[in-house]
Amino acid sequence: MRIGVISDTHGLLRPEALAVLQGCERIIHGGDIGKPEVLDVLREIAPLEVIRGNVDSDAWAAMIPERLDLRLGGLRIHVLHDLKTLDLDPVAEGIDIVIAGHSHQPVIEQREGVLYLNPGSAGRRRFKLPISLALLDIEDGQPRAQLVTLG
Length: 151
Known about the structure:
Blueprint: E1 2-6, H1 15-21, E2 26-29, H2 36-45, E3 48-50, E4 67-72, E5 75-80, H3 90-93, E6 97-100, E7 107-111, E8 114-118, E9 132-139, E10 142-149
Parallel strand pairs: 1-2, 2-3, 5-6, 6-8
Antiparallel strand pairs: 1-9, 4-5, 7-8, 9-10
């Protein structure tokens, strides 16, 4: 199963991001969407799971949850916007993957058997951080993530 993981679009969907997401079986957006049209376009590619970020404060975003707990490819995935607000123990909760955006800093890190994934920002460039998203492959119950730099 291939999952596209995108975050911090801030209303901008780059053509290169859309090209990378083609063929994904599912897409997860980690918040700071920016405009509802972003979600419409992503839903045309694959089923979409989405959370609200700190900039998603307009009425259109009110029904979008701040966190999600998913089961995909046999793994438990916890999605939140800002990792600093994580208020549970992923190991104790049996979570396999934690996905968070917000910092615009792309990260793939394994801690105590939990995969932490920040796809970075696929929207406007912030400081000198790369513009990126991630692909998460789950095969035989094993996650493998890769960052994709755009532009």
